Amino acid sequence: MTLAGGVNIITGIHNFLDLGKAGFFNLTGQCKPFDEAADGVGLVVLKPLRQAVTDGDNILGVVASIATNNGGLSPSITTLCPRAQTELFRNVDAIGRILKLVIPSRLPVCARYLGIPFRAALVSSYGAAGSNAALICTEPPRRDRNRAVESDFPFAFPVFISGTSIESLRENVTKLAAYLRKTPPDDHNQLSIGNVAVALHDHRRHHNVRWVGTARSIDSLAYSLETSVDAEFFDVKPRHKRPMVLVFSG
């Protein structure tokens, strides 16, 4: 596994002042892709596709191809060379700006839909004096995203669902079961039992009325929810306010 990113430590005061006056530095500390204030900073985790599939990782994209070239005769060190860029890649459907620099000469944007059967994106950048780099990122192979890989997990995931009342909890259980049933196995959202369990526990507010269960796959979770719709739910709200307890481990 590899972390791909870039860090540049500038210790010289004159170099720092020159780059700051030229507008090369990030003034906000935030990255805003596809925004007028974008800076173009990021960090990604890289791993061989075969190993990522074996480990059951949530694969966000696959690096399909990388290419670089150099224009050489750019008008300035901060301006790209259109000729060299078109030699590097072409036929791009849409362009989302990442850098603050306004590029007056862009590649012609194809207005037609190319009908590509899978999702793919082109990430490009350029450096000083005409250097260009481009990367094609695609979705993972759909055969590797089937729910059948979930049977490899030897353990069950805990699932937590809650509501403000018994009625709202029953409604949440019904809606989640219906959503899991109608979502195809090769859905682009890469639905998995692990992702669902984490989302329900870490990204939802927990209320007093709760449903707790375990599941090894999406199908088993949907079945458990469907059979629990008519079950009896209980409110776990304490009858008396409990005092705070501080525990200090050895």
UniProtKB/TrEMBL annotation:
GO terms for molecular function: fatty acid synthase activity. SMART domains: PKS_KS. Signal peptide: none annotated. Keywords: Phosphopantetheine, Phosphoprotein. InterPro entries: Ketoacyl_synth_N (IPR014030), PKS_Beta-ketoAc_synthase_dom (IPR020841), PKS_NRPS_Biosynth_Enz (IPR050091), Thiolase-like (IPR016039). One of its GO terms (biological process) is secondary metabolite biosynthetic process. It holds the Pfam family ketoacyl-synt. The keyword Ribosomal protein does not apply. Residues 1-142 form the Ketosynthase family 3 (KS3) domain. PANTHER family: FATTY ACID SYNTHASE, NON-REDUCING POLYKETIDE SYNTHASE AUSA-RELATED. This is Ketosynthase family 3 (KS3) domain-containing protein.
